[in-house]
Specification:
Pfam families: AsnC_trans_reg, HTH_AsnC-type. Keywords: DNA-binding, Transcription, Transcription regulation. The chain is α+β, with helices and mostly antiparallel strands. The chain contains 5 helices and 4 strands; from the N terminus they run αααβαββαβ. A hairpin with a 6-residue loop joins strand 2 and strand 3.
């Protein structure tokens, strides 16, 4: 699917505020509200826009501690097993299979170090996890929503 500059600006507007009306977005991109709706519908149908969501500030709800945890797993652990297991833990923000020594990388958020330790212990208790290596985040330097730039 070809995404032009107008589509890119519509996507950027939705990333900034998914509750913006088609009229508001239209005024930003110089289109009518119906034209914006048609483009959004086309982007949704093509799978470019997969949905709309609410983004919660973790600090606002008291989850100020975060860490990245490398998981080392038994030899026959599949990505599906890791996915199913990590989804059981509310502290898991994201999980990825990765190259390198570790089998997976898990992003955790917790209220404090004690809560993080509890979450880590539950994660380590998964039957396929042989060991973990954790890195606690000291500060966020860049935290950007996903916006793909239009090709030149």
């Amino acid at each position: 699917m070809q995404i032009d500059d107008v589509d890119q600006r519509i996507i950027a507007s939705l990333v900034a505020d998914a509750r913006a009306s088609y009229a508001e977005i239209g005024s930003r991109v110089s289109l009518s509200a119906p034209a914006v709706k048609r483009r959004v519908d086309r982007l949704r149908a093509a799978g470019v826009i997969r949905g709309f969501t609410t983004v919660i500030d973790p600090a606002a709800v008291g989850w100020n501690t975060e860490a990245f945890v490398e998981l080392f797993c038994t030899g026959r652990t599949t990505p599906t097993q890791i996915t199913v297991a990590t989804r059981r833990h509310p502290e898991v923000v994201a999980a990825y299979t990765v190259s390198g020594e570790a089998d997976a990388l898990v992003h955790l958020r917790a209220a404090d170090i004690a809560h993080l330790e509890q979450a880590l212990e539950r994660l380590r208790a998964e039957p396929f996890v042989t060991s973990t290596r954790s890195m606690i985040v000291l500060s966020r330097l860049v935290d950007s929503p996903t916006v793909v730039a239009a090709p030149d």
